[in-house]
DNA 3'-5' helicase (Marininema halotolerans), 775 residues
Amino acid sequence: MLAGAGSGKTLTISGKVKYLVDKKKIAPEKILLISYTRKAAEEMTDRIVKKLNVNVQSSTFHKLGLEIIKEYRGNRPSIAEENALSNAVEHYIEKELYQDKKQVERIIKFFSYYINIPRDYSDFKTLGEYHEHCKNLEFVPLKEKVNKKVFIDNASDTRKKELKTLKKEKVKSIEEVMIANFLFLNSVEYVYEENYKHKTEDARFRQYKPDFYLPEYDIYLEHFGLSEDGRVPWLSGGEAQKYLDGVKWKRNLHKEHGTKMIETYSYYNKKGILFTKLREELESNGIKMYEIDYQEIFSIIFNQDQKEKHFGDFIKLISTFIGLFKSNGYTENTLYDFIEKNKKEENNAFIRDRTDIFFNFIKPIYMHYEDKLSGKKEIDFNDMINQATEIIQSGEVTRDYKYIMIDEYQDISQSRFNLVQAIQEQTSAKVVCVGDDWQSIYRFAGSDVQLFTEFGKFFGNHELMRIEKTYRNSQELIDVAGNFVMQNPSQLIKNLTSSKQVVEESPIKIIGFDNNIQKALVDAIDQIVTNYGEDAEIMLLGRNKSDLDKVIDSADFKKKYDRKANFFTVVYNKYHDVKLFFLTAHRSKGLEASHVILINADNKINGFPNKMVDDPIQSWVLTDSDDYLYGEERRLFYVALTRTKNDCYILTQEERMSAFVRELINEYKIPYQSVTKGKSVLNNPNCPRCKSGYLTRKEKTNFIFCTNFSGGCDYKAHNSELIDNPILCDSCGDFMVVRKGPRGEFLGCNNYRFEVCSNSKDLPKGYKKRKSAKG
């Protein structure tokens, strides 16, 4: 049964059970009814037994597995705590890892080279999409992360340590981060964007600053964003020509002054050979490389007081992988098979090397976890389900069911599926599964959505039934939310309907802010109170547990933990009667509220979508990897949107707007408002270089730059007319600016100074130049 959010799945299952017992005369003990949580099982049992007067008990997979093992062994096994795996991973990295030099080297290299998977410019429709992607990546090289007072020079046999103040360094692209880290880990001293030794600045251009300078060898290194045919397909028109002219100018400049320049290119990265080519270039130019002391670096970056920024996400990745690995019934030998198979993969060399480091890194962690379980004479959930499956398959324990009914089947894991399949094959029972693939959001706990969407592939002949009427959301909301989640072609098609209609413009509203998210939160609460009164119930939804503290960081809000409800309530000084409570999007599944405010809809690593959870490494332990970009995060966003019975407010930082929010605005025309002081940046012209960013002005100056600056877009100008009176050049797509000529003022292309475009036209009638921001 394919059911939509708020469509009454529990009621449907209860009705089916009563029908089987009362009409089909199936004995209650012949029905195996499975729910995913103890609370859900209790609610299901209460509804069926007390309200429908049918004596069918709902069980969890946990309880079912325990009963089978207990019957076989004659005693109850000891089950590890729910967070035993993540605790074991943390313990290993914090207490055991440092003793293994090879493991320390692996984690340093993973964070230096492989924590982000670089994507080629050609993967994006516009340069803006690339810069939006890069905004969530960290452009701080490893050298900057090392304690500022400690510089390790491994080029010396004595490994002399000297005090040195390191320049605050942030590079402009993920590829430059990779190059900087390669140089640092191989003891090649470099300076980032040092002024070229010969003067080049003039009235039109600033001083030339090559990407890297290697002072010990007096060699410059430039990384060019060129394709294999020497083009820049990620730029168009005048911008592409400007870039190519810049490459030519740099080559001629070095030739003219007799300075040495090493070149690397973006297509190296696309082919996965950036490190190979870089090493070849360095060696051919006589540059000596010595690997740095990885343990010293580890002790600085991964110490207790200064955890690496993405350390927690990395632990989640490891824990998720091992959980999925065990869910499949895999063993230590399987991991060795994975390592050997990966070596023969003909895919991108970067991905192959990344996978190899990851597999070899988690191998001792997996064994560490298994040893901990063995030492405590415990088994974890996956062990329990796998053992129960083996017992059923051996025939040592038998069951006699006519029907197996499973609620929330979209959360099924491989191990749970194996157990259900074993019982079905033993009993020939009919299987009834109810769920919603649009709400499959627990991959980190082992869930595999393909077991739902490809149901026939695993169970054979079947009938698909749909429950498409929803009682929670308005038709206007489910139209948007449904179309949004179905952008992923792997999702099953549903046409949800609702009798609820909204009179207002949209039940979804987006509020943008600059740096003050509290102002956006207050605005959303004010709107809800104005429309629904001070006794309104508001669910605050975050992508992460830590999101709440960032939003209520002011004296106006206070949080209090409700132990009974197991969530934080929030008191807002202005409206004491408003019922505010906080949940993560995952925790909110199955719940609802009159109103929802979604926070942290930002474009960053731990924003929404979260950029680390969809790591392709997991494809090794999933039946068929969902390769749609951020597919699970899109489903989680759908869950967040559909928790409301009335309206959903989304808070987003204007200059770091989530890709999901942009999609809602651009594709579904969701209304957007800004609480930013003055004019919203979204009302400004688009950047002519990357196309998706917006031009913005540095406060109290005429300096203009792109909002995608943090993602690497380097468009800039010193003319406020680009924002105040934007007129596009119909020749190259840049802006026209006021210039003075022999016959007076006229409009000339901003690219004129680069000798790229000479387009000009008369000033429009009535054109008035605004006063300078400095004036």
Residues 147-168 have pLDDT under 50 and may be disordered.
